[in-house]
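Methods — Computational structure assignment.
A single polypeptide chain was analysed. Its primary sequence is given first, followed by the predicted tertiary structure written as structure tokens.
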Amino acid sequence: MSEADQYELLSPRQRAGLHRFVYHGGDSSLLYKFILSPMAQWLVDTIIPLWMAPNVVTTIGLLFNIASAVLVVLFNPELSATGPHVAWVAGVSAVGMFLYQTFDNMDGKQARKTGSQSPLGLLFDHGCDALNAGLSVLPVASSLGLGWSRKLLFNLIPLIPFYVQTWELFYVKSMILPIINGPSEGLVIACSMMLVTYFTGSATWFHTTQTVFGHSVVPYDFMVLFGFTGAGITLVMQCFNVYRALKRDLKGSDLLSGIASAFSNLVVFTLFFGSVLLWCTSPGSIALAPRFRWWTLLLVSSVFVEIVSHINLMHITMEPELHPWKRYSVLSTVYLAICTLPVLKARLPFFLREESVLVLLSLVTAYITFRTLHLMNTEVAQVLGIQVFLIGPPQKKEVVKKPSTRSQTGKKKD
């Protein structure tokens, strides 16, 4: 078997691009600079052994949020605002999310401590962040007592800046998080919301009213407004950064075509996000019904992780263009949104209706996503001659015909 036959996902150009990749980034958050980063550095210097691979640190952090989601499934599956377990589950979830954030800040520092920085670290770290975005729906919704209703869609707001930030990274070639951002302030706010529930109960979010401009509002309304405002401001900033980067690198007609190409790559996410909203709010849809809600969550999370991870892979392999239209998993949410429209729902044959295809689409999409993630990580590790979860003797590294200076990266930089 030739070396080229060993790779199912990465092309020769992508494998060569991995050796040229150099990461540029940082976090402008004052909270990160003066509290979160020093704390993470102290923990790495104090308790993390040299033999522990950075990706293991990342995985440990993700496990805390997985545990929180499991607790919600076991003790508050209806995401109810009342019940004997709501408060303590919220408290544990707050701790779990804070630990996830802390370990997410530690992995890059561990990579620099051990000299094991690589593009694989960026790919693995951002993949776990995307997985966490889907997992966090459960503990946050449980803490707010949103139930399986349209209010649950509030938890999808962070997906907007998350995806667009990944898209921005591809074109700008650096990730400089703004002074207020989701990975720092956003997660701390989410932890604080859970702690409020722990001390006062979920009823606080919907039964403590305030009068604003003659209208009675509850704290949940403020959170929705804050979420949409923050996402909107971040979206505008990210789009402007991409435009500025393209204007710097391209001129004349190339600039116009570059702008058109770059912003057309947001259409796939728009289709995904819009179809999920339409599907989950369509009259008569079973998306949030007791028998199907977990399948819905699996499907939405899988599609999101797949489309985000694709951009990350294109970034670290130095690909000149994205290929968003090859993200066929998006078609699953688009189809479900279309088939639940009242004009079509009654006319479709039984085997094409929502209730007949939802479970199958969820399983197929989840399989494709996790298989893709496996191929991404194992093939990138093989090209670089490293291991995913171990720091040890390097594996045999692929020989590139025209070798260039190999540059690896940490996942976060101060």
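Note: Residues 219-249 form the longest helix (31 residues).
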